[in-house]
What we know:
Elements lengths: L5 H17 L2 H4 L8 H4 L7 E5 L7 E5 L4 E6 L4 E2 L2 E2 L1 E8 L3 E10 L8 E7 L8 E7 L3 E7 L7 E8 L3 E7 L2 E7 L6 E6 L7 E8 L7 E11 L14 E8 L5 E7 L3 E6 L5 E6 L2 E6 L4 E4 L13 E2 L5 E7 L7 E7 L6 E2 L6 E6 L5 E8 L2 E8 L6 E2 L7 E6 L6 E5 L6 E5 L7 E2 L6 E7 L5 E7 L12 E9 L7 E8 L15 E8 L1
Antiparallel strand pairs: 1-6, 2-3, 3-16, 4-5, 6-15, 7-12, 7-16, 8-9, 8-15, 9-10, 10-11, 12-13, 13-14, 17-18, 17-39, 19-20, 20-21, 21-22, 23-24, 24-25, 25-26, 27-28, 28-29, 29-30, 31-32, 32-33, 33-34, 35-36, 36-37, 37-38
Amino acid sequence: MHSHSPITSGRLFLAIALAALAGNVASCRQAPRPPAPTLEKPLALFDGHADIGAVLKSGAVVEDPAAGALIIEGGGANMWFATDEGFFVWKRLKGDFIVSARVGFAGQGVEAHRKIGWMARSTMDPGSAHASAVVHGDGLTSLQYRRTPGTDTEEIKLPFSGADQIQLERRGGAFIMSAARFGEPYASERIEGIGLGDEILVGLFVCSHNAEVVEKATFTNVRVTIPAAENFVPYQDTIGGTIELLDVDTGKRTAVLRSDRPIQAPNWTRDGRFLIYNADGLLYRFELATGKASKIDTGAATSNNNDHVLSFDGKRLGISHQSAVDVGESIISTLPVKGGAPRRVTTKAPSYLHGWSPDGRFLVYTGGRGENFDVYRIPVKGGDEVRLTDAPGLDDGPEYTPDGRFIYFNSARTGDMRIWRMAPDGSGQEPVTSGEFHDWFPHVSPDGRRIVFLSFGKDVAADDHPFYKRVYIRMMPTDGSSGPKVIAYVYGGQGTINVPSWSPDSKKVAFVSNSK
């Protein structure tokens, strides 16, 4: 029998945290502020920009607001040996950080070893110690570093070439480079013992590797993340969040709402005008056109989980929330999408909502009954629940396909968390994903063609989905014609994409990333 899994404990902690928040409305029940200019205008993420070294031809940086991109031009004879030349766009950072971007050279270029990427260095001095995540014009991808000022640069080559997704992280005393061809998981290398000091310059650079030439590169999805402290206490210590819109075909990310409070689980209304999300145990409606957020009246349900689901016709909202009767336990209720008194559906607890049937007649959810968590179905009007899964191990995240033929869910029954699917009556259960990750929360596009889900690394237990991890949002066709590909490289986890979050046109998904 499966007992007291991390998710069980996590949801219990969440219930306690929400109950505490409910008693402190004055300090935390405020709608998040308007869109963050530092994410809408990537140049505002940085403190300055300048040439490094005595370059023959100066570099420059401009912003492309329509693409959310930085276009950087840089000259310089080289960034190697004991001195560097090039153009650097930098930000002062202390402590741990994660910086990431999608990168690419513009044009054919001149030198095979022209370089772009992320750099962390002590000073603007050409001989400064540094750690850099670098992509060369010929595709060479490497972690390059100068241990002490004025010494020769060294490098660790990654096992592939041609990366266009680059990340540089400082974690304690280590610098970690992660890189990928967009769509693939990261490969990583790390180096320790680089004495840069606490406050350093971190940013994007371009070096032409030819003093007579200026090269140009484009940087999109530029993100500067300050992660949670390594000793943070889950469900007690929190950091802020950003709601982002992700174009699933191009990978372009657009930040639309930033909060210093933890925000979670956005889902898109059927008319495409609003996102509904969770913050401090309450639900909010965010209008995409105006950037305004307003609280949804959920009556006595003031400690809501991040498991809210819209009916397929968009008229009703299903919620999981802490019951005033079953203290510390989650129950499921429904209410009008614009707000109102919740009507209780489940009589047993704990119950965590995840899906609404296309015909509006049933809800599917995860229920903890005895020593196991399984998938259940219940009529929207209430009544007897039907158990759909009974395998040992956690079954979670059930969601109907738009045509009603299948229910997708995630299950740890094999020892790894995988995406599964079954018929609406629970028959024909079969795995959909396999491989090196733990996969959670499948969401099928409105057109029924694709499925997105969250993938954790094996550093996380199969039956846990914690906050503040390096995770992927992956996508695959529902017909199984090809395997999953990464469409977003995210710092997040719990609350990132717990609920159905597709846009009505099946072109975008909404999700939450995290940063201090």
